[in-house]
TrEMBL record:
It comes from the Bacteria. GO terms for molecular function: ATP binding. This is ABC transporter ATP-binding protein. The keyword Hydrolase does not apply. CDD domains: ABC_MJ0796_LolCDE_FtsE (cd03255). Residues 39-257 form the ABC transporter domain. Keywords: ATP-binding, Nucleotide-binding, Transport.
Amino acid sequence: MMRWLRKPVQREETTVLSETAAAEEIRRADESVPGAPILTVRDVHRSFPVGGGEIHVLKGINMEVRAGQLAMLKGRSGSGKTTLLNMLGGLDQPTSGEIRFRDQPLHELNDDQRTMLRRDQIGFIFQAYALLPLLSAWENVELSLRMAGVPAQEWKPRVTHCLELVGLGKRMFHRPFELSGGEQQRVAIAKAIAHRPKLLLADEPTANLDSQMGAQVMAVFRNIIHTEQMTICMTTHDPTILEVADHVYEMADGRFIE
Ligand SMILES: Nc1ncnc2c1ncn2[C@@H]1O[C@H](COP(=O)(O)OP(=O)(O)OP(=O)(O)O)[C@@H](O)[C@H]1O
């Protein structure tokens, strides 16, 4: 979804970590255990300048996502789900408040540090698949490993593993137009998890799919959490898939409601 590409607004740095120090902290945080908090959000607000004034979109968000959870954000259009998800992935920063990802203060990292952290530890899935149309499923997944700087000798086994994990072992060399919507979304999932992120963020990943294909995607998510030790946070409008969640956060007008 194009809104993922919104340019994060620059803000003054409160802490400047050197790249080496940030990388070291990330490595140290690698010891996270299942059930430990992986994402902690404290009193997050986000406003955007509009015309001469500003629009207050997030109004004091608090949440804690634990390792191995499937967390869902639900709420009406415009309630702030995508704005929050962008911040959980370090694509945007809060106007105030704190977001910690595996002990990293996302709200304090500069653009380069957040880019590095995303490249290593976070995967994104878009509503509109975001696959390169001229590349096969295999090449799409391989490309994400190249971009993540994974050594070339690891590409083949990892691409095979990821495509098999999402149930596309027999469709590895098809191009996107030769695949159904559900299959394309599963390629996008394989692509997003190939570099072994700890956190997978998905903005309405089932929105373009019928209920059967949506259920397949949710089954793949469950499988990924189990076999790849990942944590997933996604937005949805679809009430039928909420029961798959470990925790549902309902948003209304920039806040969570009970
Ligand atoms: N960069 C921006 N500048 C101005 N307003 C913005 C910006 N980003 C989001 N908004 C506004 O914030 C509100 C929440 O948007 P957001 O996309 O987070 O909602 P959402 O719950 O994800 O909606 P949907 O379910 O339709 O995707 C909307 O009113 C939107 O117009």
